[in-house]
Design a protein that fits this description.
This protein is α/β, with parallel strands linked by helices and about 270 residues long. It has a single domain, classed as NAD(P)-binding Rossmann-like Domain (Rossmann fold, 3-Layer(aba) Sandwich), CATH 3.40.50.720. It is built from ten helices and seven strands. It has helices at about 15-25, 35-45, 60-70, 95-125, 145-165, 185-195, 205-210, 225-235, 250-260, 260-270; strands at about 5-10, 30-35, 50, 80, 125-130, 170-175, 245. A seven-stranded parallel sheet has the order 3-2-1-4-5-6-7, with helices on both faces. Strand 2 (about 30-35), helix 2 (about 35-45) and strand 3 (about 50) form a beta-alpha-beta unit. Helix 1 (about 15-25) packs across helix 8. The longest helix is centred in the middle third of the chain and has 29 residues, at about 95-125.
Length: about 270
């Protein structure tokens, strides 16, 4: 029996890497991708099929997919759009260029990969698309404007695509992930230092506090395998759900979003 194939973006560490390793262990034909060649080589050293793919560079997406379908005989069962990063900062502290950089990876990159994969799935008559959103695609937190906006955009694109694919056998699932142990926070801290004028911001104290925080300061944090297990569930499901909540933080905030007025919800979110 032919193995199910899965293409995963953003596998250099954290969720992408953990998912690739678990899916391989479970017998899937895994294609773990990264945007830097050193990370590709590291993935190969772990026994993974790894290919270069930078979601902001369409030619690398095309080259990667050419290699995948050559190996699979022209098919791709599952796409996990996982690549992304977080750019913290108050809306007033974000330049438009910084906001564009956030969207280039998190939204436009995801969209480009999906556009290139869809013809493969439509030709074979089936497929599963998994888009990595966030609890911050459901609610917004202060000093996360760029990231919030990118995840809300993913929600809108995914919900629309799901409706437009109702006449096909291609499913679209969203992962609303809360805090997960990975390099995400460290990378986000670096983005603050690179792109935010901390010293001249009225949020200076908040930035400095966040830069000192560590993973143990965030409640409900889970390991990356919590996300990988949901991807495995989707892969093995005949009828994947349109949305999966991951971590108690997502369940709690998602519930409060449904039952509270915006004004009451704001009073809670402002304290987080």
């Amino acid at each position: 029996m032919k193995k199910q194939s899965i293409l995963i973006t953003g596998c250099s560490s954290g969720i992408g890497l953990e998912t690739a390793l678990i899916m391989k262990k479970k017998g899937f034909d895994v294609y773990a991708t990264a945007r830097d060649i050193k990370d590709v080589e590291h993935l190969k050293s772990l026994g993974l099929n790894s290919l270069l793919l930078d979601v902001t560079k369409p030619d690398t997406i095309s080259s990667c997919l050419d290699e995948v379908v050559k190996n699979t005989g022209g098919t791709l069962d599952i796409l996990f759009n996982n690549a992304g990063f977080g750019q913290p900062g108050a809306v007033e502290d974000l330049t438009t260029n910084v906001l564009k950089e956030q969207f280039d990876t998190n939204v436009f990159g995801l969209h480009e990969v999906t556009l290139q994969v869809l013809p493969i799935m439509k030709a074979q008559g089936y497929g599963k698309i998994i888009n990595h959103s966030s609890v911050l695609g459901l609610v917004s937190l202060k000093l996360r404007g760029a990231y919030n906006a990118s995840k809300y955009a993913i929600e809108g694109l995914s919900d629309t695509l799901r409706l437009e694919l109702q006449d096909t056998n291609i499913s679209v699932s969203l992962l609303n992930t809360g805090p997960i142990i990975s390099e995400f926070r460290n990378n986000a801290k670096q983005k603050v230092k690179e792109n935010i004028d901390i010293q001249n911001s009225r949020f200076k104290e908040s930035y400095e506090k966040s830069l000192k925080a560590n993973k143990s300061d965030v409640p409900f944090t889970l390991n990356a395998n919590a996300v990988a297990s949901v991807v495995l569930t989707i892969a093995n499901s005949k009828a994947p759900l349109p949305r999966y909540y991951i971590t108690k933080a997502t369940y709690l905030l998602g519930y409060l979003k449904r039952i509270l007025s915006t004004k009451l919800l704001d009073k809670i979110l402002i304290k987080i």
